[in-house]
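Possible regression after last week's pipeline update?

I re-ran a chain I had predicted before the update to compare outputs. Posting the input and the new output here so someone can diff against the archived version. Not blocking, just want to make sure nothing changed silently.
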Amino acid sequence: MVEFFSSEFVEDVDLLIRRAEKCLKEDADMIMIDADGVSKHADNMRGDIVAKIVGRLGLEKTMFEASNQRISEWFIKQYSPKVNVPLNNLMLFSLIFPFTKQE
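New output (post-update):
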């Protein structure tokens, strides 16, 4: 697995995609992309950038690392449960049981 833009904002999505395609061509199994790098700020998810990445690389070869539950939920709502986002136990529980009060 290759990770891109773990702490930088994605300014050139085409460059990111070209680098990812090269890694996949050289037998990387999956590309991990930090969702914070795509959105710059968690309140402003850049759906256009995500759509371009998914369109070129495909869901099966891309994993988006989300720093919080809201971003993980956004990916699942936009791309179905088939999207690759790592979830911790608390995130998983709240997605399965959204109306359960958590403290």
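Follow-up from reviewer: compared with the archived run. Residues 32 and 60 are 11 Å apart (CA to CA). Marking as no regression found.
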